[in-house]
Sequence to fold (125 residues):
Amino acid sequence: MNPFNRIGLAAFAVSMFGAATFVTAQAQDAPHGDAGNGKRIYLAVGCFTCHGRAGQGGAYTGPAPIVAHTALPFDGFKGQIRDPSDNMPAYSEAVLSDKDIADIYAFVESLPGPRSPKDVSVLNN
Fold:
């Protein structure tokens, strides 16, 4: 095996280990939430208005990101809710407790997320 292939293989292994560590750390950092209650809160406070009922994102007041199966760790998700970027309203602890946010996080993590275009038959014709 030439030196470039060994370097590439080593870089790939390190990146895969790092990705696995990130996913594990993300799952461990999130407090336990109740996805059923999270769905109720998500609908009650109007998250679905911009982000869609299935967390698919939308364009109600501008591009709203996909939140289904979010890649954000819990702290980033919570930070976005407390002090959002763009035109999303902020939700103080008086409006949404940390437990409510953990429940919403559990709900959006339970959603399947976007499908690959290869999985949509009409796009493959």
